[in-house]
Amino acid sequence: MAFSKIVPALALALAATHGIAQDLPAGPIRMLVGFAPGGGNDVIARLVSTQFQLNTKTTVVVENKPGGGSTIATAEMTRGKPDGSVLLLGSVGGQAIAPSIYSKLPYDPVKGVQPVSLVAKSANALVVNNDLPVKTVQELVAYAKANPGKLNVTSPGNGTISHLSAELFKSMAGVSITHVPYRGDAPAMQDVMAGQAQMTFASLPSAKAGADSGKVRILAVTSTKRVETMPNVPTIAESGVPGYEVVSWYGVFTTGGTPMPTVNRLAQEIAAVIAQPSIRDAIAKQGMEPSALGPVEFTQLVNRDTQKWAKVVKTVGIKLD
Predict the structure, then answer these.
(1) pLDDT tens-digit profile of 139-159?
(2) Apex CA 173: angle with CA 170 and CA 175, to 5°?
(3) Distances (CA, A) of 43 to 60, 186, 268
(4) Which residues are CB-contacts of 150 (< 8 A; sequence separation ≥ 6)?
(5) How far apart are CA 70 and CA 35, in angstroms?
(6) Torsion over CA of 245, 249, 254 and 257, rounded to 10 degrees?
(7) DSSP strand pairing (247-255 vs 216-221)
(8) pLDDT tens across 100-136, in order?
(9) DSSP 18-70
């Protein structure tokens, strides 16, 4: 999946400034975040909310509701009035993976949730300890096949995008690698750097920091096209595992049943936010690609990823409740 460029965002942004009769919800608007302050979801939510408020003069209040992989925040959003006054800064984990790994969600993930706009997306990176005698994905696959079960791959926890990236890699490459879950990104990377584990699928900022330390090397990225800021790093798909693709994304959602004119107005205003050079630069500094998709296209993306990860979850047998 190619990363969206600025053109779609500008097109939606221009639409937002021409003849839109639909009013925004009577403020204030609540922007829920399913994780603690300081994480990726929280940073993006505050960037978007601040500029949205400046552009529209509508008060936006960010509220952190951590827990349950964003399911607690999502549940609260679904209980809101269906008028666009309650938003959620969601992500692939909370919105596309959670329906498969939690058997009893306190809401309907289809009828209760309305995708509004994609905000940003990012490839992740396949990282290995420097002492592992491999320098390419092909060499890693060959090593894993020659040493079945001897390699460990860390993740920030069961059911995370990092974990499922590893499971998808194992399945598509036909290798046996042991998954070791940790409690967070930092310890998962630290043990690979220390040599306690051999590999992980990390965010680009984390992977770059580890590589700069000289203790790990980046073998490939998980997108189907190379990352512009890392043009010399190949993709996994071009390195012997054709068809492999994992993209993390962040987007805005609202309560299911919200009238589409309101949803479209919200999407157009968010696209105007994403078109701002300062916001694009701030998102890029988080290691992500700013990208706006309207409600129809974003819903299609969410549905595709939900189906994709449901298959992986079923194959591996992951359940968190």
Answers:
(1) 999 999 999 989 999 999 889
(2) 55
(3) 15, 17, 21
(4) none
(5) 6
(6) -10
(7) unpaired
(8) 999 889 999 999 999 999 999 999 999 999 999 999 9
(9) SS--PPPPSSPEEEEESS-TTSHHHHHHHHHHHHHHHHH---EEEEE---GGG
> Which domains can be identified in the chain, with CATH numbers?
6-122+247-316 (3.40.190.150), 123-239 (3.40.190.10)
The span from the CA of 306 to the CA of 14, in Å, is 31
Contact 48, 266 (CB under 8 A): no
Map tokens 């900022």 to a residue.
Answer: 205
The torsion of the CA quartet 138, 144, 145, 147, rounded to 10 degrees, works out to 140
Give me the average pLDDT of each 10-residue run along the chain (321 residues): 44 44 83 89 94 96 92 96 97 93 92 97 96 97 95 93 95 96 88 96 92 95 92 96 96 97 97 97 91 96 96 90 76
Q: How far apart are CA 299 and CA 103, in angstroms?
A: 22
Q: What residues does 290 pair with on adjacent strands?
A: 120
Structure tokens at 139: 């060499």
238 Cβ contact partners less than 8 Å away, ≥ 6 residues apart? none
Burial (CB count within 10 angstroms: exposed 0-12, middle 13-18, buried 19+), residue 238: middle
The answer to whether 320 touches 153, Cβ cutoff 8 Å, is no
Is the Cα dihedral 109, 113, 116, 120 positive or negative? Answer: negative
Instruction: Tell me the HSE value of 17 on the side-chain side, using a 13 A CA sphere.
Output: 10
